[in-house]
Design brief:
By secondary structure, the chain is mainly beta. It is built from 1 helix and 8 strands. The protein folds into 2 domains: 43 residues; 71 residues, Beta Barrel (OB fold (Dihydrolipoamide Acetyltransferase, E2P)), CATH 2.40.50. The strands form 2 sheets. It has a 5-stranded antiparallel beta sheet, with no helix packed on it. A 3-stranded antiparallel beta sheet has the order 2-1-3. The longest helix is centred in the first third of the chain and has 8 residues.
């Protein structure tokens, strides 16, 4: 069974277009220069309209995670077990994503991670793909 796919809207379309190109974007306010995630039409710090989309470095640290062994969703049965994580990007924002290519027993909070793209979605892995 196919995994559900995100449905872009006018606000998130630039993000998904970049993901299709193998790039990770976050928003950055031109007025106060703060990064933010998740996408919004205004800056959550200063209220300025239309934060810009900028390329993220694609690196960060594992903030927290869980290894899912069970799911009620048939679309994800074939993925079990999988890691759902919160990754703190070097830009300071936290994003939710899967961690792939890392032995689950080797996962530790604060370990460095880098973005990789799996089946058209941003995921994270150990730098150099080892782990």
């Amino acid at each position: 069974m196919d995994r559900p796919r995100p449905i872009p809207d006018a606000l998130t379309q630039p993000y998904w277009d970049a993901v299709a190109e193998g790039r990770l974007l976050v928003q950055r306010c031109d007025a106060c220069e703060r990064h933010q995630w998740y996408p919004r039409a205004h800056c959550v710090v200063c209220g300025a309209a239309d934060p810009a989309w900028v390329d993220a470095k694609g690196t960060g640290r594992l903030h927290t995670f869980t290894v899912l062994e069970k799911t009620p969703n048939p679309e994800f049965q074939g993925e079990l077990p999988y890691v759902l994580a919160i990754v703190q990007l070097d830009e300071g924002v936290r994003v939710a994503a899967n961690v792939v290519g890392v032995d689950h027993d080797a996962l530790t909070c604060e370990m460095p991670l880098e973005v990789t793209f799996v089946d058209g979605l941003p995921c994270f892995t150990s730098p150099g793909g080892s782990g």
